[in-house]
Known about the structure:
By secondary structure, the chain is of the alpha+beta class. The chain is elongated and about 100 Å long. Among the domains are: 118-140 and 253-283, no CATH class; 143-249, Roll (Chitinase A, domain 3). It has a four-stranded antiparallel sheet with strand order 4-3-6-5. It has a two-stranded antiparallel sheet with strand order 1-2. It is built from ten helices and six strands.
Amino acid sequence: MRGLVALLAGAACGGGSTSTPPTPTGPPAAFEPTPAAGDVVVATVNGRPIWGACVAGQVALGSAGPTRHDALQQCIDFELMAQAAEARGLAPNPEVVLATRTAMVSQLVARAYEDGYTKPEQFGANWNVLVGKNLWRVRHEDYRASTYVRVDVPEHATPAQDEAAHAVMERVAAAVAPERGLLGPNFVPLAQAAAGPTPLAHQDVTPYRAGALEEHYAQALFAIPEVGRTSPAVRTKWGWDVIAWTDDIPAAAPTDAEVAAKMMPDIKRTYFDHWVDKVQRDLGLHVELVPANVEKLGAAP
Length: 301
């Protein structure tokens, strides 16, 4: 979310245009930040303070960050450049004002939303709705992926046709049973070689729980002892199949607290628009579009 505001601002500004942007309204550039409680002045530049928090922030950049002495010099240099920019009249520059407004929005999102919304109850009824839609992703039964080869048997096939298909798939099952580590790309050619001239239908099937598969297909798939092995020939509603188990997503039963921790990032991304609407309602703000000018945006570069 911290990067969202910067991204939106960049998209709004666009690029390549040589036209002069309109003078924006809003706060002037803030070159004199208000110190946090307990902060100390470590230097002054033309009477303006350099605060310890600036130095600590530079040092905290990590193992490759500056020494304390270098960090102090960097903060001094920054203040020198900020005052030089003011002296040259850059404080009211539209780009500077826009950057200041963007920074304020970023801080609001970071502090009031990212750091402020950390518990399920803060999302109200929306939490249960959003979690309910996606709970299957984190709390679920065993899911198995598979590849099948099949001799299709028409719905009104004769017993002789059914038995002929069965016989082909028995040969296929016997041929691939000793194999290990089978996946679709090597399973299908082996099966087709064993089937001879009888063409086999085949398909890779994404992971499913047993209850979401055709009954006989599921029983055969979930009886296979390990990934990469195959089932005996099995009669499904479509014909005679031999199935290879190709991947597994083990069952998961996280606690409610574990579910909340895992799903919180996605919930916060989804809930963000609701939060913005709540900010508007709480402040009693009124948004009004200018339709004629909105239409002009479609023709803007």
